[in-house]
Amino acid sequence: MYRDENLKELARKKFHHFATLERKHQELDDIIDKMEKKTYLTPAEELELEKMKKERLKLRDEMVMLIKKAQEASENEK
C-alpha cells in the first residue's frame, strides 16, 4: 500500500486534475455505498445506481492510467 500511495502522490504532482478525479471517485463511492445499504431501490434508483457505478469505474480507470503515466515518466527521468 505504501508504494501505491507514493504512486498516487506522484500522479497528483504530475497531473493537476488527479486530485479532482480522486475526490469525484470518493463521492460516488460514498453515494453508491449508501444506496446499496437500502432495503429497496425503485427502478429509477437502480438505473441511477448502475450509472454511478459505471462512472466510478471510468474514473478509476482514468486514475490508473495517470498513475501508470506518472510512473513511466518518473522511471524515464532516472
From TrEMBL:
Coiled-coil segments: 18-76
Top-level taxon of origin: Bacteria
InterPro entries with a match to the protein in the record: DUF465, DUF465_sf
Keyword vocabulary terms for this entry: Coiled coil
Gene3D superfamilies to which the protein is assigned, alphabetical: 6.10.280.50
Protein name as catalogued: DUF465 domain-containing protein
Gene source species: Desulfurobacterium atlanticum
